[in-house]
């Protein structure tokens, strides 16, 4: 099973990734604001809009990852880390190794879909 120090390390990695993505997104927005590219009429505009959208999605994903890891640490401190939220069974260590922020066991996760 993942230990608290590993969760903290994963959270620090996620926070660094989010900071880098936030900076890249801000740079992209600033660069595109300074240009007179028209998304609709300029061939470069569509590329810039795509890059902005793609980078925005990565920022959102990184924020969700950070929240998930914060919640995992909270569960660790509460004594409920590694216990399925739905059926209260123990989440297999292999699942937690693959997905340290997992809230459900494999069975419950597959039924949710």
What structural keywords apply?
single chain; 113 residues; mainly alpha; elongated
Rg (C-alpha, Å):
19 Å
- First and last CA, distance: 25 Å
User: How confident overall, as mean pLDDT?
Assistant: 89
Give the topology string: H per helix, E per strand.
HHHH
Question: Count the helices. How many?
Answer: 4
Please indicate the count of domains.
Answer: 2
Task: Describe the model.
This protein folds into two domains: 81 residues; 32 residues, no CATH class. Helix content is 71%, strand content 0%. It is built from four helices and no strands.
Q: Could you give a short description of this structure?
A:
The protein has 113 residues and is mainly α. It is built from four helices and no strands.
Question: Would you spell out the secondary-structure blueprint of this structure?
Answer:
Elements: H1 4-34, H2 43-78, H3 93-98, H4 106-112
Helix pairs in contact: 1-2
